[in-house]
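not sure who needs this but someone in the group chat was asking about tRNA-uridine aminocarboxypropyltransferase from Mixta tenebrionis so here u go. i didnt clean anything up, its just raw.
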Amino acid sequence: MNHNAVLRLRAERLARATRPFLARGNRVRRCQGCLLPQKLCLCAEIAPQRARSRFCLVMFDTEPMKPSNTGRLIADVLPDTLAFGWSRTAPDPALLAAVADDTYQPLVVFPESYVDSDRPVVNTPPRQGKPPLFIMLDGTWTEARKMFRKSPWLDALPVMSLRVTAPSAYTLREAHGPGQHCTAEIAAELLRQAGDSAASQTLSDHFLLFRQRYLAGKPHHPAQLINDTFPIQK
């Protein structure tokens, strides 16, 4: 089983839960590493990479629990990825320390259309100077906007507003609007533009394989009918 920061956060969240969390497909027997159906487990195919860039996931309350979450894929590929639960009033001290670490350039990844006019915005990841720490607000679109608006401990940081023209391949949840991408897709593009090409390609491949197997595990999905005949290939 793969152990990463998101899975550890998930374990902590489960430990303090007062009742079972019932995500869609909760009756399926899942691998506790990749959260896919056991027969479609991809843990053995995870290929960790090194990168100059680093990621810090700030996750809304139930996000680490969801099998469809793709922030976990970043932590699969980049083992030094950080993950914290979000709190408006009591952020984790370790999160505050990570944001204040002066060996990195912290950047809050969010669309610039939601940014106040006096806040610095960059559209291209830095390739010079300190390595970037990409802070990603992981949740539904409504949850991400809430985290962006109500995290005063992030207000002083510049915003990384990435411009992505390729359409999203994420179909596991309904998008809030056209042009939106899932967490893993944005991370792969950030890595590519930051010069971490090998990590970007590995994350993209990992995401596509995860998507394929997730859909194959859904009853009556066309992918399930195909996989009854042909093996899934990376």
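also The chain has seven helices and six strands. if thats useful
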